[in-house]
Design brief:
The chain is α+β, with helices and mostly antiparallel strands and 496 residues long. 34% of the residues lie in helices and 19% in strands.
Length: 496
């Protein structure tokens, strides 16, 4: 594929302008910018049928009734700095629950095995906020870690015998801890049926909007659409030719792919996973980040494409495989109408890379770029529909994929500090306590480089193994930027 820097004649049938446009759309989507609000209409319809989104249905089926397990919830740490008015904070949280129907929705079993659950929206109610005793002269990071540990031991949204969100209780709650007169920690725990990574930024912004000490509570303006409207739109959008075309693309793309990547584990894989998770940080300094950016620009690619190329090389080295499939989360918020909604929108896209040792590093980046650009128009296709289609075509009636085993993500969702009435709400990093996947490599762009981590299944891997893989991954990145014309084969073995 011709890139913006190529001086070679374009191959017959190539479309450089189209390639650049697709790349721009991809970069906008990765930066969290809506691509379109046109096309088939997404509108408010309070009387519409109650349905779940495809992502919720896949999550529900994966839970298999264990809706209270910590792996199905998200914990968001928020630092509060400045004078805190507790009634005003409670009022702001209550306003958010009133504004977003998804936070007060319960889910009833669909009746048939594998059928989607039935959502039932309750009337507005108070946000459950537990205020802990004051603690003086403590390390905030340690306190936050302890709050997360306590949270994972508490059922959320149900007691294990009632449906999720029974009695209309919100599938979200919080714990507030006072560190000093002007420093507090807020831990928000939400069930993934109602929350995703993008939702963190929405919650922060709305806290700033609705926090109003010394005044009457701010009445939340009605949202243009609710999560249920999106679910109905999505069901209609992917029930006809668009769904068939998208599913057909992914089934062709994933035909013959391996069912698993044989990552070497420190412990045997259990018959039933407990989803215990842990994590280690990954820091890419400014110098290497800039070098990676230059390499991406040379190939007309994105930084994510280069990071994924290195990840595929390392996985090929660790497993001995050359057909590498991993998953990447997709925000699935291309419509402007849903940018300000809380809810579980996330989808999964499969990235399949042939790690050919005879290619140069530049050549492999080009392959990755082609693969990602080709799949981008189909990223909204519910991955659960792809899994079902592949299973139906399989003689065993089952289809497994490494795309639900190993992940990579470059987080670009908007998440910054918000100040309101002298109180600053700042996002805090929370340590993972549970994970749905075996290994996830996660990055976020920060001033001075890339910061992220590897979240891993603690029941399979030791910290020492993950630390060694992080070192090897960083080494692959450095060697890629230092010698991009070298064969990939030179990177399939550790540096001497």
């Amino acid at each position: 594929m011709t890139t913006t820097e190529d001086t070679r004649p374009a191959p017959r049938g190539a479309d450089p302008d189209g390639d650049r446009k697709r790349l721009l759309r991809l970069m906008r989507a990765r930066k969290g910018l809506a691509v379109s609000s046109g096309g088939d209409e997404l509108r408010r319809d309070p009387e519409g049928p109650a349905v779940t989104a495809f992502s919720q249905q896949s999550l529900w089926n994966g839970m298999r009734g264990a809706t209270t397990h910590p792996v199905w919830r998200m914990c968001q740490g928020i630092g509060l700095r400045g004078p805190l008015d507790l009634p005003a904070l409670q009022a702001a949280l209550d306003a958010i629950v009133a504004r977003h129907e998804v936070l007060r929705t319960r889910y009833l079993p669909g009746g048939q095995d594998g059928a989607p659950p039935v959502p039932v929206v309750a009337e507005p109610c108070a946000f459950p906020l537990r205020v802990a005793h004051a603690v003086e002269s403590v390390d905030p990071a340690s306190v936050l870690e302890e709050l997360v540990s306590q949270e994972t031991r508490r059922p959320l949204g149900a007691d294990g015998t009632r449906p999720l969100g029974a009695d209309g209780a919100p599938v979200i709650r919080g714990s507030l801890l006072r560190l000093s007169d002007e420093e507090h920690l807020l831990l928000v725990a939400a069930h993934r049926m109602a929350y995703d990574g993008w939702s963190r930024g929405v919650l922060l912004r709305e806290l700033g909007t609705f926090y109003s000490p010394g005044a009457a509570p701010v009445a939340p303006a009605p949202l243009p659409v609710q999560y249920g409207d999106f679910a109905r739109w999505q069901r209609a959008r992917y029930s006809g030719e668009d769904a068939e075309e998208g599913v057909a693309y992914w089934t062709r793309r994933l035909a013959g792919a391996p069912s698993t990547l044989g990552l070497p584990t420190d412990l045997p894989r259990p018959a039933v996973r407990n989803h215990a998770g842990d994590g280690l940080p990954v820091i890419i300094d400014a110098e290497l980040t800039e070098a990676l950016g230059r390499l991406a620009r040379e190939r007309g690619a994105t930084l994510f494409m280069v990071l994924h190329t290195a990840w595929a090389i390392l996985l090929a080295r660790l497993t001995g495989e050359r057909d590498i499939v991993v998953g990447t989360p997709v925000a699935n918020r291309q419509r402007t109408e849903v940018e300000g909604l809380l809810g579980y929108f996330a989808n999964v896209a499969a990235l399949r890379t042939t790690v050919d040792g005879e290619l140069t590093v530049r050549g492999l980046i080009d392959q990755v770029k082609e693969m990602i650009l080709a799949g981008h128009p189909h990223q909204g296709v519910p991955f659960g529909a792809v899994v079902r289609a592949m299973a139906e075509a399989s003689p065993s009636g089952r289809w497994d994929t490494p795309a639900l085993q190993i992940m990579i993500n470059l987080v670009n969702t908007p998440l910054g500090a918000v100040t309101s009435h002298g109180l600053t709400f700042s996002p805090l990093v929370t340590a993972p306590r549970a994970t749905e996947y075996e290994v996830s490599l996660i990055f976020a762009e920060r001033e001075g480089g890339l910061a992220g981590g590897v979240v891993y299944a603690a029941e399979l891997f030791s910290r020492a193994t993950i630390a060694r893989w992080i070192d090897q991954y960083t080494d692959v990145l450095r060697r890629m930027t230092a010698a991009p014309d070298d064969p990939v084969a030179t990177l399939l073995a550790p540096a001497p």
